[in-house]
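User: Hi! Is it possible to get a structure for several chains at once, not just one? Here's what I have:
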Amino acid sequence: MTITGESGDDERVTVRDVAARAGVSATTVSRVIKGDYPVAQATRTRVLRAMRELDYVLNVHARALSGASTKMVAFVLDDVTGPSFAYVAKGVEQQATAEGRLCMVCTTHGDPARELAVVEAMREQRADAVILVGGGSLDDTYRERMTHFAHALDKAGSRLVLCGRPPLGDNVPTTVVEYDNEGGAYAMTSHLLSQGHRRIVLLGADWQGDTSTTKRDRVYGYVRAHESFGITYAPDLIIPAGFGRADGYEQTRRLIARGAVFTAVFAATDMVAIGVLAALREAGIRVPEDVSLAGYDDIPFAADLEPGLTTVRIPTEELGRTAVRLALNRGEPQHVVLGTHIVVRDSVRPPIRNQVS
Amino acid sequence: MTITGESGDDERVTVRDVAARAGVSATTVSRVIKGDYPVAQATRTRVLRAMRELDYVLNVHARALSGASTKMVAFVLDDVTGPSFAYVAKGVEQQATAEGRLCMVCTTHGDPARELAVVEAMREQRADAVILVGGGSLDDTYRERMTHFAHALDKAGSRLVLCGRPPLGDNVPTTVVEYDNEGGAYAMTSHLLSQGHRRIVLLGADWQGDTSTTKRDRVYGYVRAHESFGITYAPDLIIPAGFGRADGYEQTRRLIARGAVFTAVFAATDMVAIGVLAALREAGIRVPEDVSLAGYDDIPFAADLEPGLTTVRIPTEELGRTAVRLALNRGEPQHVVLGTHIVVRDSVRPPIRNQVS
DNA sequence: CTTACCGTAGTTACCGGTTTCTACATGTGC
DNA sequence: GCACATGTAGAAACCGGTAACTACGGTAAG
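Assistant: Yes, the chains can be modeled jointly so their relative placement is included. Here is the combined structure:
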């Protein structure tokens, strides 16, 4: 004696089932769903009722297969928990929803190889747009392959979007939504210099090898500001590091241990700044009395730190929203640079003369 | 004279195209891709080469249509920028990747109607699992419709997962991964009571009407702790509010304005606690000297606040990972409750006697 | 020498909506 | 009364990958 499976195995309901119940053809059901073709009121009502009674659910894969758009955008970022990334994600999600799209997320943990793999997966998914969030790798092979993807997606009617990183090249069909990354670093460095700081640690950015575009451009701004002020910067104060809290903490401890002399720290991200702050405090160094501290990103918590963190504001949400909007509406310009600006709080103060940290 | 479109319109490459180039049948190409059927080495090589030369990209929709799993899990949350949600999201993404799945995200902004709509959309997508993150609505119609979805997804071979909220009912086929929400609130309230606090504001939770399960259970814990201590709590100290920083800030200002008497504030979330802290500080009330403050969630920034925030730790990432793992491996138990525990930092201290705030 | 079987590859139908293209009532104009 | 537009509905093919079934050369077993 066999027992019949309790959860009745997939009794998939198709348009044809609905059609049968409503006494019409599958075509008619399809037309009722899309609503783009005249269907008699009485027929429509019957079909709608049949759909309800059968608990019909459309199959997007069937629809996508027969040529329709997938109504999906993909976005690819380092880590969903990165506060600034999260806000870009929010903007993307918001705009995507507004444009009737669903969102896919993929994380790369900063691995360019994984980013490439993910973009390939998104090609398989036939996403309407693939949005790369955050700085990009500077590696040649990587850039070459990404360029290929840009062309391939374009040919397939989709779009590669670079959000928060510079274009791949002049004739690469991408949508680019950047912010003035270098300008923000320039402005903040200038701010510190104008307050009288002369030995400013830049922590978490570097321009050696294949770093990310984000790190490179923040160094450019730092260097350019020094040049504008006619001040030679000390290369040994540019400390490469990751973008996390732990990186800021660790490097600051090391800096203190090696007896480095500086009156200000410009952290490459607010997360790094938080780590710097913790390490400084731990060493009995007060901010801003003994050392000034500046961040980059203006994450929401920057204002709640003690002292309030002076930082560079990036229009994160707008970045995300714009990326989706431009990618989906090709009438608009396909390269936009959004502005950044300094948010002055309490963590920067002119240095005390003859300070030795 | 017509100019040919520059971006050559979709020259989609199919298995049949690859087959033609390799001089084999479409089936063989399919078999090379899946690798589950013996194909002669020489043939495989030829097919692989053809795929590369044609830049072939698989179409997941066609594959999904012919019966295969979509290899996608969906997760639905209030807001990607909520720090604790973000960590659940991270766990989900991590485990999904480990199990060869892609992720879709949808946000609801706390609107139950939107949550229902989103789940319906996920049914259309034929997601392998639909993960609902965060507290659920207590509204009857909502629960009824969600129960229906649970059954429908189950019948379709998918799974509804409740992550961070209690089950819908005994015979509803869902995977539930909760944390001991009530227990955390109980422990923290007990901690405050044992320190001598007697007038503890619970800010951001309530149990009236159709609030969320999260808010309700945090009140339950608060109340039960008072009962355990044989202390009658003051209902007017339970202040309903949202889960954001602004809510904590606003309600605290109001509390101070109305001259409420309390020696501690138990904020329903750390974000609320940050708002409370800001309002308190603004009013010249010191934490923890004048008023103690506790939070819930243990977001990463809780430790970087000044003073460090005493709060309840939720295993957010594990919650997300577990949700995906259980949903995809039905051999495992389908209802798990993870523990919570207090993290003591510096924001709680015994109250000063005769304190009037 | 025939039968059986293995390894490999092809044929064909199917998944579920959509999209022509066709069909057939009515109604309209001459 | 005939030609023709209009409104509505159906039949069949198609999207691209896959599964079930068939086929065929070659070797091993009887």
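Confidence is low (pLDDT under 50) at residues 1-8 of chain A. The CA atoms of residues 76 and 106 of chain A lie 5 Å apart.

User: Great, thank you!
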